[in-house]
Design goal:
Blueprint (H helix, E strand, L loop, with lengths): L2 H31 L2 H8 L4 H27 L3 H19 L1 H8 L7 H31 L7 H18 L7 H17 L9
Helix pairs in contact: 1-3, 1-8, 3-4, 4-6, 6-7, 7-8
Organism: Aliidiomarina sanyensis
Keywords: Membrane, Transmembrane, Transmembrane helix
Protein name: DUF4386 domain-containing protein
Length: about 200
């Protein structure tokens, strides 16, 4: 796949991610409002929401891979590339917790149901915290090359700092249901612009 097609597909994936992300997490928020019973019930069933969760993870990983490729064309991206790989790994681990839903829905390890759900919830929160921390470091590292960044990537970097800080507070992380898709749309626009020269502002 040539770079032009890669960025085109990356832009399409980013747009789809920006649409699906808030749909899924608003659903999760609704479950959370219903209390512990709702959360436990969600882990015990396997449905289309689980498939959507996996799809969102796959799209996010692909968008970060395309972003890595884009940055490698324009910047000294050694550290940035390494941080993106860590972010990709954390996204894969986070969305990999769907195996708990599969195990419980199929009756496997039913004797350890409560322990599995509690462990999955604790693990998910830990991974989200680590992802927010690495995202913050990535955004700051990206801004160290501020003068070499296209305008949209500059805005993305600043916005990512805000999103990461919100996520680290946990409580304010709910705001990211709106903020994160906006940042992803900025990447979509940048990708779809293709291999243009980097603007220097």
């Amino acid at each position: 796949m040539n770079d032009s097609n890669l960025f085109r597909y990356g832009g399409g994936a980013a747009i789809l991610l920006a649409v699906l992300f808030p749909i899924y997490w608003l659903y999760v928020l609704t479950i959370g409002v219903s209390g512990e019973a709702g959360i436990w019930g969600d882990f015990q069933t396997l449905n289309g929401w689980d498939a959507l969760f996996v799809l969102i993870g796959a799209l996010e990983i692909f968008v970060y891979l395309v972003l890595r490729k884009y940055l490698s064309h324009h910047l000294n991206a050694g550290l940035l590339s390494a941080l993106l790989w860590v972010m990709i790994g954390l996204v894969a681990i986070f969305h990999g917790f769907v195996v708990v839903d599969i195990a419980l829905a199929t009756g496997l390890f039913s004797a350890y149901e409560d322990a599995l759900i509690a462990s999955a919830m604790a693990g998910s929160l830990t991974v989200l915290f680590l992802f927010a921390l690495v995202s913050l470091i990535f955004a700051i590292a990206l801004l160290t090359q501020f003068s070499s960044l296209p305008t949209l990537i500059k805005v993305f970097s600043i916005g990512l700092i805000v999103v990461a800080l919100m996520q680290l507070t946990v409580i304010l992380g709910v705001v990211n249901i709106v903020l994160f898709p906006i940042l992803i749309l900025l990447l979509a626009i940048q990708f779809l612009r293709g291999e243009q020269s980097v603007e220097v502002v």
